[in-house]
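Hi R.,

As promised on Friday, here is the backbone we talked about, encoded as structure tokens. Could you run it through your design pipeline when you get a chance and send me back a sequence?
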């Protein structure tokens, strides 16, 4: 990876002294050099630098019409690869990337464009699928996680790549840890991934990520002391070098009965402009739990509110259901004393083990057709697909949705699913809400 980065950087330096009149294919060479350099920097761990090279391609005036224009022979495909790779950065717990943590649409755009070009089996698509795994993981959407992970595996079956296969294993292990899989099996997968990495030249990004996932597995198994030891090991210990390492360390300290130390560890993340949206949510949750255990009731209530404020725009559910014991009590207190983000809180409290929330009010009875539309919303079907399913027009579906939102007192699909889940009878084989 280091050699690839050096070679790509040298190509760009050479190209700077040339013009397309001398070398007609120069723009394609330059674009591809940016892709290779950005890709290499991802795996080396220099994510901000990688993002700049991808943006250089996507902002190139020669490609301003992409991706709306059809593919034409000789046209560089670098923008497709740049979009796919760039989508991986914001969701992979960046050390130094200043991008939002969850943005699924561009990731789908990259995959869709690759499919349109007949390149959907390109190994680079694995990165886009893994990005979508992590996006849906943060939103608590298990079926979409499984589907994206299966698509990544299918590409790698046809076009093996050891580095991307390790990334796939790490994403899958995070998912398995969230659903309570046997920790010994997850740790065995991580051991195998470590063996693969040891056989390759250094890939710092995956090396750090593997340590973070191991700590997550240990925390899910209530082995906080081991998790803290893993995070603290080595000269570049994630506990000190990464934001997510500090967050996992804070969770481990809570598990060890050291709330004041947890506050000291995660507090700086709340003022750091490099902290991603997901990390902000988790930092406020650790702060809330630590304050609660220190009997700082007002601070705990304020912190849980700040966590909900940060989570609501992107429906970031995972930080709540992986945080551990005590959070349900704080959420219930917030519901009774503050009352903001009612739909989000109701959905979180409906998870197994949480107190039963009061049913949200419904302003008018739902018709049979509105209930049918409501039952289809968690499937992520488009309006057109729902219309096809129900043999009605798209405008009819839009009318049902407008009425549905008004009666439930919500403004979007996600809120409708959370707010109206108790209204839809559970059917065999159908999930009524995208919560695990």
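Update: got your reply. Pasting your designed sequence below so it's all in one thread:
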């Amino acid at each position: 990876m280091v050699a690839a980065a050096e070679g790509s950087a040298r190509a760009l330096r050479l190209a700077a002294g040339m013009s397309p009149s001398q070398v007609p294919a120069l723009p394609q060479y330059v674009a591809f050099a940016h892709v290779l350099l950005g890709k290499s920097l991802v795996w080396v761990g220099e994510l901000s630098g990688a993002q700049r090279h991808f943006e250089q391609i996507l902002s190139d005036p020669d490609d301003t019409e992409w991706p709306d224009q059809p593919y034409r022979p000789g046209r560089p495909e670098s923008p497709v690869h740049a979009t796919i790779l760039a989508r991986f950065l914001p969701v992979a717990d960046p050390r130094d990337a200043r991008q939002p943590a969850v943005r699924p649409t561009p990731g789908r755009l990259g995959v869709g464009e690759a499919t349109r070009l007949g390149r959907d089996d390109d190994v680079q698509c694995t990165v886009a699928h893994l990005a979508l795994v992590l996006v849906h993981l943060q939103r608590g959407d298990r079926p979409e996680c499984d589907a994206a992970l299966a698509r990544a595996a299918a590409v790698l079956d046809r076009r093996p790549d050891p580095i991307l296969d390790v990334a796939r294993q790490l994403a899958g292990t995070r998912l398995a840890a969230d659903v309570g899989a046997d920790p010994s099996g997850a740790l065995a997968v991580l051991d195998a991934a470590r063996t693969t990495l040891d056989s390759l030249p250094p890939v710092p990004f995956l090396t750090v990520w593997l340590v973070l996932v191991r700590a997550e597995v240990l925390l899910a198994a209530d082995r906080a002391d081991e998790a803290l030891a893993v995070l603290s090991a080595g000269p570049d210990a994630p506990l000190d070098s990464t934001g997510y390492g500090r967050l996992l360390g804070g969770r481990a300290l809570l598990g060890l009965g050291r709330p004041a130390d947890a506050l000291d560890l995660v507090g700086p993340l709340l003022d750091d402009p490099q902290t991603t949206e997901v990390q902000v949510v988790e930092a406020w949750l650790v702060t809330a739990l630590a304050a609660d255990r220190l009997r700082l009731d007002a601070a705990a209530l304020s912190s849980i509110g700040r966590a909900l404020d940060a989570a609501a725009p992107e429906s970031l559910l995972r930080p709540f259901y992986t945080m551990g014991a005590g959070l349900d009590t704080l959420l219930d207190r917030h519901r009774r004393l503050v009352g903001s983000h009612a739909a989000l809180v109701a959905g979180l409290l409906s998870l197994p083990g949480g107190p039963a929330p009061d049913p949200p009010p419904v302003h008018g009875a739902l018709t049979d057709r509105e209930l049918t539309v409501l039952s289809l919303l968690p499937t992520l079907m488009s309006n057109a697909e729902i219309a096809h399913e129900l043999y009605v027009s798209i405008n009819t579906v839009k009318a049902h949705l407008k009425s549905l939102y008004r009666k439930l007192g919500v403004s979007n699909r996600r809120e409708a699913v959370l707010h109206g889940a108790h209204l839809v009878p559970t059917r065999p084989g159908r999930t009524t809400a995208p919560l695990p």
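One thing I noticed while checking it: The two ends are 37 Å apart (CA to CA).

Thanks again,
M.
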